[in-house]
Amino acid sequence: MKERKARSVITRVFVPAHVRDLPNGERVTVPGHYKAPPRR
Questions:
Q1: What is the DSSP letter of 1?
Q2: How far is 15 from 27, CA to CA, in rounded Å?
Q3: What are the tens digits of pLDDT across the range 2-36?
Q4: DSSP letter at 6?
């Protein structure tokens, strides 16, 4: 298997904790987690 050094392969993206405001006025705290990177 050849390894390519052209660009780093990101296997996952870390999403820091944040607070989301819902349309009904509720606030939801989303904890930090990993998500799949966006497909190009």
A1: -
A2: 18
A3: 555 666 777 788 888 989 898 999 999 989 888 87
A4: S
For the chain, the domains span: 13-39
What's the DSSP call for residue 23? Answer: T
By C-alpha distance, which of 20, 14, 21, 16 is closest to 31?
16
Given its phi and psi angles, is residue 25 left (phi above 0), alpha (psi -120 to 50 degrees) or beta? left
Question: Could you give phi then psi for residue 30, rounded to 5 degrees?
Answer: -100, 115
Nearest alpha-carbon partner for 14 in 31, 29, 1: 31
Whether this model's pTM surpasses 0.70: no
Distances (CA, A) of 35 to 1, 2, 40: 27, 27, 15
